[in-house]
Amino acid sequence: MTATERRSELLAKVPEVTLIFWVIKILATTLGETGGDAVTMSWLGETTADATGSGYLIGTAIFGVIFLAAVFVQISAKRFRPFLYWLTIVATTTVGTTLADYCDRSLGIGYAGGSTILLICVLGSLVIWRWSTGSISIETVNRPKVELFYWVTIMFSQTLGTALGDWVADTNDTGYLGAAAVFGGLLILTALLYYFTTLSRAVLFWAAFILTRPLGAGIGDFLDKPFADGGLALSRYTASLTLLGVMIVLIVVFPQRPAGKAH
C-alpha cells in the first residue's frame, strides 16, 4: 500500500464541519420535510384517501428502502463523495419525517411519547458507539463499523428532530416560524458553547446536528402548509425541487473536503 493510499484510509468519509456544511444540512432537513410531505400528504394522501395513516406507513417504507440503499452504497464507497453523502443525509431526513409522523399521529403515541422514545434511541446509539469504538467523533468515521453507528445515529436524530419540531409548532400556538426561531436560538447557543467553553466537541456537534432537524422542519412546514395553518401554501413539489437545486449549487460551488485524520 502506498503512502497516499494509507493517508486516504485515515480520512473520514464525511465532510469537514464548516459553515457551508451547516447551511447545506439545514437545507437538507427542510427538503426532508417538504419531500416527505409531498409523498405522504400530496401523492399518497390523495391515493389512499383515508384516515388510517397508510400514507405515512407507505411513505416510510418507500423512503426506508432508499435510505438503506444509500447507506449501503455510502459504506461501500472507498472515499468521501459529497453528492453520495448528501443524498444519504436527505434520505435520512425524508424517512425521519414520515416515520415520526406515523408514530406521532397514526399510532397515537403523541409528540411527548414519540420524542422520548427517539431521544432514548439517539442516546443509546451514541453510548453503544462510544463503548464499542472509543469515540463518537466524526473524524473517526472511516471504517464500516463506525459508519454504521454514524448512520443509525443520524437516522434516529433526524426522526427525533421531526417529532420535536412538530411538538413545539403544534403546542402553545407557537406556529412554524415560532418553532424555527426556538430551535434556531438553541442552535446559536450551541455555537456559543462551542466557541467559548471547553465542552466536548463531539457532544456539541451531535446536539447541533439534532437541532438543525426541527429548525428545518419548522421552515419546511411554513413553506408548504395551508394559510389557515400558518403556512405559505407553496407547492410541496416546487419547494422540494427548489431546495434540491440550491443544495446542488452549493455543493458544486463550495467543494467539500473530508473531515480531518482520525485519531
Outline of this structure?
The chain is an all-alpha fold and 263 residues long. The protein contains nine helices and no strands. It has one domain.
Structural description of this entry:
With 263 residues, this protein is mostly helical. The chain has one domain. The protein has nine helices and no strands. It has helices at 3-10, 19-48, 54-76, 82-106, 110-133, 144-170, 175-196, 201-224, 236-253. Helix 2 packs antiparallel against helix 3, helix 4 crosses helix 6 (144-170) and helix 5 (110-133) packs antiparallel against helix 6. It starts with a helix and ends in a 10-residue tail after the last helix. The model is unreliable at 1-9 (pLDDT under 50).
H/E element sequence: HHHHHHHHH
- Counting DSSP H or I runs of 4 or more residues, the number of helices is 9
Query: Low-confidence stretches at least 5 residues in length (pLDDT < 50)?
Result: 1-9
Distance between the termini: 20 Å
**How large a portion of the residues is in β-strands, by DSSP E?**
under 5%
In round numbers, the mean pLDDT is 84
Observed structural traits:
263 residues, mainly alpha
Secondary structure topology:
Blueprint: H1 3-10, H2 19-48, H3 54-76, H4 82-106, H5 110-133, H6 144-170, H7 175-196, H8 201-224, H9 236-253
Helix pairs in contact: 2-3, 2-4, 2-8, 2-9, 3-4, 4-5, 4-6, 5-6, 6-7, 6-8, 7-8
